[in-house]
Amino acid sequence: MNKLKVGLIGGTGMVGQRFACLLKNHPWFEVTVIAASKKSSGLTYEEAVKNRWKMNEPIPENVKKLIVKDALSIDEICNEVDFVFCAISLNKEETRKLEEAYAKHETPVISNNSANRYAADVPMIIPEINGEHTAIIEAQKKRLGTKRGFIAVKPNCSIQSYVPPISALLEFKPKTILACTYQAISGAGKTFNDFPEIIDNVIPFIGGEEEKSENEPLKIWGKIKNNQIVNAESPIITTQCIRVPVSDGHLAAVFVSFEKKPSREEIISSWENYKPSNLVANLPSAPKKFLHYFTEDNRPQTKLDRDYEHGMGITMGRLREDKVYDYKFVCLSHNTLRGAAGGGVLTAELLKAQGYLIAK
C-alpha cells in the first residue's frame, strides 16, 4: 500500500512534535514535509527542535534530517504532499487565511487550530460521534472553488472528556450541563521546566477556553441542513476551565440534568455499550473500547488513566445522583493524544477511509 504524503505545518511545537511521533510508523501516512515559522526554516528538524523537544521519546529517525520549510511556502509544500496537518501558532485571522490557502492549492487541511471551527461548512470531528459531518465537505469545496482541497478541524481539547460520555446519553435528552475542567499544562504547550509558576499552584483562567467548551459541543451535536452544519439548540452548557499542575490529561467534573431522566444503571449501560460505526472502529488509531466506566470511588485518576487505550479512550467514574442536577460524574481524556494530535490523525484516517484523502 502506497502511503499518502503528509506535511506537518507547525511541526516544531508541542502538538507538531506529537504528530511526528504518532506518524513515525503509521500504516497509511508518511511525513515528507515539516514546516514552521521563518526562524526555523532551513534547519534540519533535529536542529529546529534542539533544546525544546518536549516528548518523552526521542525525535523519530524518519524526520530528524528533514529540512524545515517556511509554512508560507505554500506552492512548494503543496507540490510535495497529499494533505497537511496544521498545528501552527498564529493569530486566528492569519491561521484562517493560511489554511484556506492550502485548501485552495488543492491540499486538504486537518487542523488542530480554532480559526475555522465555527465556519458552517467546515466539519469539526470526533470520529466516533459525528463522522457523518464530513458530508459537508462537498459544500465547502464549492465555496472554495476546489476539486480536492478542503479544511476539517478537530474540536478543542477541553471538551474531549465530557462530550463523548454525554453523546452516549443523547437519547435521554440532556438539557443542562455544568462542566468544570482541570486541564494539564501541555494544553498550553508547556512542561514543568518552562512553566514554573504552575508548581504548587492552580490558575483559574485559560483564555478563550470556556467559550469553546460551551459552544463547540453544539456544533458536534448539530445536523447538516441546507449545505451547512446547524448547531444543536440544547443542552445549555456552562463551564469553568482551570489550569492544574499536571503534565498531561484533562479531568472534568460534570453535572447534568435530562428531559427523560435515566436510571444510574441505564447511564452506565449506555456508556459501556456505546459503539462507533464499524468504519471508525477499524481505523488504525481507533481505541478498541472508546468509553470505560470505573466502579472504584477514586477513579479515573489523571496519572493512572490518561493513557487508557493509548490515550485515545475516555474514562468515567463516580456517577451519582445530585441535589441540584440529576447526576454528576468525573471523566478524563488525554489532551495531546485524543484531544490534539491523536484526534487529528484519527480524523485523517476517517477521511481517507471515506475517500476524501487520496494521492495527488
From TrEMBL:
Keyword terms: NADP, Oxidoreductase
Domain of life: Bacteria
Entry GO MF terms: aspartate-semialdehyde dehydrogenase activity
PANTHER family: ASPARTATE-SEMIALDEHYDE DEHYDROGENASE (PTHR46718:SF1)
EC number from the UniProt entry: 1.2.1.11
Family, per entry: Belongs to the aspartate-semialdehyde dehydrogenase family.
Principal EC category: oxidoreductase
Originating organism: Clostridium neuense
Pfam families reported in the protein's UniProt record: Semialdhyde_dh, Semialdhyde_dhC
Domain (Semialdehyde dehydrogenase NAD-binding) ranges: 5-137
Entries under InterPro entries matching the protein: ASADH-related, Asp_semi-ald_DH_pep-lack, NAD(P)-bd_dom_sf, Semialdehyde_DH_NAD-bd, Semialdhyde_DH_dimer_dom
Name this polypeptide is given: Aspartate-semialdehyde dehydrogenase
